[in-house]
Task: structure prediction
Amino acid sequence: MNKLLTAVALTVIAATITNTDEQTHTLIVSEGGNQIEMTIAAGETIEICPNGCFVTMPNGDREVLTGTEKLEIEASRGKIF
Result:
């Protein structure tokens, strides 16, 4: 009897944040009752919050992310679009 094994690649969806500014910025990520600071360097792209989270942006705004967003930090004001 032949057995066939099939490998399945799962894609994890996460929010993507790209820092197009020339400065490093820090985000505060609250997920599952835990809060951490995440630093994103100039030109860097990070993926966060695959299960959703709250994020405090560099300008102090707080956003709810579901894990599907694509955001950019631009200019030295830490403005996110």
Notes: Residues 15-76 form one domain.
